[in-house]
Amino acid sequence: MGVGAFNLAVVGDPLMVGINGIAGNAITMTEPEGIQFYTTESSLVSTELTETTAPLGSGGYIEVTPGTYEVEYGGAVTTCRSISAWAGSQDGSVRMPIRDGYLTFSWVSCELGLPLEAQLVSRQPPLDRERPFLRRPWPSPSRACIGRQRS
């Protein structure tokens, strides 16, 4: 049997995914399986972190047996809504499908009780309105793996 992976991002404004992730949240599977990771402040993957960091605010698991899993998140956030995952059994959780050989991406949009400007703790430069929104292309599936840097 093969394995899959998932990444869940906890963000403020869902239209600004990738630059306004919310730091300080734990992401856990209700039935832990696989290897847990979080993205660092420089957008690299780390298995040593214990909570989300800005600017991506994301984490997840690799080497997960295919199926549907409930994932809990919480810490620095208050009111959240799912952007691209199924509703979980309680507040602060979502359900996500994991398929063999695939990486599932999901997002939840949350409030911190702060103005949006205070939530944007990104270290990236401001957006240049003359250029496309994404600063770099997504890696191909063959290059999106733990332990290897993109070239």
How does the SSE layout of this entry go?
Layout: E1 4-11, E2 25-29, E3 35-39, E4 45-46, E5 58-64, E6 67-75, E7 80-82, E8 86-87, E9 93-98, E10 103-110, H1 116-119
Parallel strand pairs: 1-10
Antiparallel strand pairs: 1-5, 2-6, 3-4, 3-5, 6-9, 7-10, 8-9
Task: Considering the chains and any ligands shown, give keywords for the structure.
disordered C terminus, mainly beta, six-stranded mixed β-sheet, single chain, Immunoglobulin-like, 151 residues
Would you kindly provide a written description of the structure presented here, covering whatever features stand out?
- There is one protein chain.
- This protein is mainly beta and 151 residues long.
- 3% of the residues lie in helices and 36% in strands.
- Strands 4-3-5-1-10-7 form a six-stranded mixed sheet, with no helix packed on it. A four-stranded antiparallel sheet has the order 2-6-9-8, with no helix packed on it.
- The termini are far apart.
- The chain has a single domain, classed as Immunoglobulin-like (Sandwich).
- It contains one helix and ten strands.
- A hairpin with a 5-residue loop joins strand 8 and strand 9.
